[in-house]
Amino acid sequence: MIIDTTEIQAINSFSRLESLKEVYGIIWMLVPIFTLVLGITLGVLVIVWLEREISAGIQQRIGPEYAGPLGILQALADGTKLLFKENLLPSRGDTRLFSIGPSIAVISILLSYSVIPFSYRFILTDLSIGVFLWIAVSSLAPVGLLMSGYGSNNKYSFLGGLRAAAQSISYEIPLTLCVLSISLLSNSSSTVDIVEAQSKYGFWGWNLWRQPIGFIVFLISSLAECERLPFDLPEAEEELVAGYQTEYSGIKFGLFYVASYLNLLLSSLFVTVLYLGGWNLSIPYIFVPELFDINKRSKVFGTIIGIFITLAKTYLFLFISIATRWTLPRLRMDQLLNLGWKFLLPISLGNLLLITSSQLLSL
User: Fold this and answer.
1) What are 119's strand-pairing partners?
2) Distance CA 269, CA 141 (A)
């Protein structure tokens, strides 16, 4: 049997070409994920710097000024310090739960960023149940906190984990009802469709004006979900010695720190998407109609403008959250639960029934 060397070379070159195509496809699939993670990391660093500057301004002190110009590298310096610190493990605790808890808290929040539309068609994955995927995945974070508190074998830590679980359950239900109201109003649960439904009338098309009660409930519930003052009962330093974080040190403590700011940024992005029109220019189309066709004329320029608008609205809400933390006192645990179950839950349920009735009457 005579084997043609030319055919063998052609087969080998074809197989190498197919292998290169597969590698190229894998790399191209990972590029958006790494880009999103890098952008989120930079966003968290900016939030930490903003919180320190805003809190310094409110309390009339100087704030960070040595690590980089205007102290912008202070958060990076703190993260580097935590990375090289020693990781301590409780001698009688559950090592597996103690180590897995911080990872669950961070990963569950990171997965929720996949359904955030930062601009027109600039989204990692556009799912038909995008907003409910966020609620389902972010609900796993308190499980990580509870595992951390239990695995520490510390009464203070375990009490902090229990508080985190109770607080999450109390405010997850009003939050879900508000999201369901927005889905009924927009006839879709996709985050892209919700933004598109608000784009018809510019500023006056925002769900903020169509759902003012839901916006207030969502705002309060999101602050409670992020465990921000006045709702930071799970880690109340004066009462619980830092709660579920008591036994943690080094990078594991840093993961909790990062998770809190990741959750704050995520909540701010969802406020922008659900109530503030997302990436759309908030100018009535009857005045400047050509601005609303910017995506059709130049996709790259339109995407950049959309990202800028989304981040501007997001950081406006972040400023409100940070100022609230350094202005209001902490609630007691009974006050927190009463607010969630006796006030926010009936109000959000009545708001949902009102929206449902109006949608049925309009059919």
Assistant:
1) 122
2) 18
Rounded-to-integer distance, Cα 157 and Cα 249, Å = 13
- Residue 346, CA distances (Å) to 10, 167, 227, 262, 353 in order: 71, 17, 22, 29, 10
CA 355 to chain CA centroid, Å, is 26
Cα 38-39-41 angle, rounded to 5 deg: 65
**pLDDT tens-digit profile of 17-27?**
666 667 676 77
250-275 vs 299-325: helix crossing angle, rounded to 10: 110
Q: What is the pLDDT of residues 294-352, one digit of tens each?
A: 555 567 777 888 888 898 899 888 888 888 888 888 888 788 888 888 999 999 999 99
Q: Give the span between the Cα atoms of 242 and 248, in whole angstroms.
A: 10
DSSP state of 329: P
- 292 phi, psi to nearest 5 deg: -85, -5
What is the CA angle 107-109-113, rounded to 5?
Answer: 110
Integer Cα distance of 134 and 274 in angstroms: 12
